[in-house]
Design brief:
heterodimer; A: mainly alpha; MetI-like fold; 12 helices; B: mainly alpha
Amino acid sequence: MPARRPTRLAKWLISGPPLLYLLVFFAAPTLIMVLASFRSPGEFGGLAPLVDAAGKLDINVDSYVRFFTEPVFFQVFVKSAWYAALTTVICLLLAYPLASLIARSGKKHRDLLLLLVILPFWSNFLIRIYAWMIILGPNAALAKLVNRVLAAFGAQPVPLLFSSFAVLVCLVYVSLPFMVLPLYANLEKHDQALLDAAQDLGANAWQRFWRITFPLSLPGVYAGAALVFIPALGIFAIPDILGGPDDTLIGNLIKQQFLETRDWPFGSVLSIMLTLAALVLAGTAAWIGRRSAGDSRA
Amino acid sequence: MRRGSPWLWTAALVAYAFLYLPLLIVVVYSFNDSRLNAEWVGFTLDWYRKLFADGDMISAAGNSLVIGITASLASTVLGTMAGMAMHRYRLRVLPILILAPIAIPEILTGVSLLIFFVLLNFTLGLMSVALAHIAFCVGFVAIVVRARLAGMDESLTEAARDCGASPGRAFRYVTLPLIMPGVIAGALMAFTLSIDDFVITFFTAGAGTVTLPLQIYSMIKISVTPEVNAVSTLLMLLTLLLIIAAAKLSPSILRSNQET
């Protein structure tokens, strides 16, 4: 048996370097951001000096007061949550048939079908946004078709690109794999005997789905919803590239504060609020998931 | 297959078309002899010729390569250590620090690192981007390596130790060769994540440093040009090859996405 001391040394030798790296380049920056949210913005961006000429310490809650008193910021949060919620629902509707098909297919096809869902996720994020710039562009076939139909009904032509529609379509597009995977992982484990029993007792296809498959799949639905909703809440590149003037979401607001207005304290407050929202949502999803998993076993 | 499957197949086919048609359009129009990405005119390789004559694009690709190699090497070493540590010991802090950067929206990592670098007077550039990329790649490597270790027979390393091998030798000659596919898969994954990253790079690159995704961003903000299609096609091809290689080495990559 090796002595006790060397194993403790070994533990620190292998866990020490990654721990140290992440403490410096993840934990410390996060902590600094929290501290920055209690400071004042500097005259030329960044932060004001910690101790000013009069010897007064620069610590205040002004940025938090601003966030909670000016309704426009709350409205942006609500709008982001609305976009994220719509994305989640549409992804669920698209992902459910796909995930059930993969779960029901043979072992050999299953890996390939799964790989086909994951591959687009690994292609560059900007390229996937750019693809929709092409598809929804004013000269592309889709816009011409839509506007011809609208013209037939005497309606004004609408731009597809630089609109909330474009933002939503692209959000669904980049989020879909995150809904399919957890749903598949859940559906794959379902016991076929339950469905056969229901069929023997006279349940039709819809009843079998709604009373058995769907309730059993709820943990997968919640996991997928969390994986889609949380990143969608913080997205900035999609509305930045595909959105119109009304499509400012939390991510765009944060980018503005750091790169354009250069008000770091307020940008930090927005980032902290986004983090809190993400944590609360992830916690709730985990809690509901665990509870519904408990219910379905009982 | 059971009943109801024609409906299921149709729905699934629509979903797959939705996933792949946009990417296919990008690729097809990169060979299109027209300035507008609107309709097919004829075949050309002009956009690729233009691409390789574009100095900004070449230097951006060079930057991406330097950052990608640095970030993947460093994060593979750190991530392998973290994966082994999490497999062997019951740790409390490390798993949280490993998963948190993967779980929270990317923009948060980006802006907090921006404040961090600027307050420390650290010049924004290749180095700050590489340091930031390492921070979010470590977790992905750690997850893949840990999955590999979980499927491994622990008694082999113990046997080596019983036969008198030092911990270093046991690692070098037994554990490392066994987890090597996981380590290489992790490295390929880290390289792909680094070369594709836009959001964190956007905040930590500063004004003078441009990577491939940043170059694509500034091009599509101005106009849609088939040159972007050409660079996108090449980048997708590269990513595709890397990920297929990584998935062959370590099928757990297909699962690791699930945890993000």
